[in-house]
Amino acid sequence: MPFECPEKNCPRCPRLVEFRKNNQIKFPTYYNGPVPPFGDIDAPFLIVGLAPGLNGANQTGRPFTNDYAGDVLYPVLKKFGFARGEYKKCINDGFELINARITNSVRCVPPENKPTGEEIRTCGYFLTEEITNMKKLKLILVLGGIAHNAVLSVLGYKKSAFKFKHGAIHKLDRHNILLVDSYHTSRYNINTGVLTYEMFENIITRIKNILIENKI
Prior knowledge:
With 216 residues, the protein is α/β, with parallel strands linked by helices. It is built from seven helices and eight strands; from the N terminus they run αββααβββαβαββαα. The protein is globular and about 50 Å long.
């Protein structure tokens, strides 16, 4: 079956549904729903984040769009040939991904940007279906430890065998996929120096070289 995004009023996570309803009242012009992935389902490269930001993807309806993490992510993707156009922080800016796709572990914005373990597991159904339908997928970049664990869980790998470490590259042999770890491009990580632009550019450079070396 082809991949289908969660319905706009997905009822699966009660806490997130309640938060969504409150935001629909408070921010009536926002997207306020499970945010669809961005990019081609046939891309060889998938980026997995944590969850939409309240005033970012939850507002615009596109992952990482109109939040600080996207301000870091998208220009770097363009610099290294994974995107084209001008990123203007809105869904209709004409910005496009090239051979890449972006999604989240949890599709709805959680209170305080903190999804529960149950919400991550519940939304894992959609991540499983999405990865299953990416027939040309060769490499997954996870932004942060939660995304790292979510991907391992939905693919059926033991987390203890693949520890999260910035810059680590794990071979997921059963799926013929490489899993690449990076700290999240959040404002907090950048401001505290946990992640620098140079560090993140090095990650994307390595990914580009891997794809080139494998003629992807």
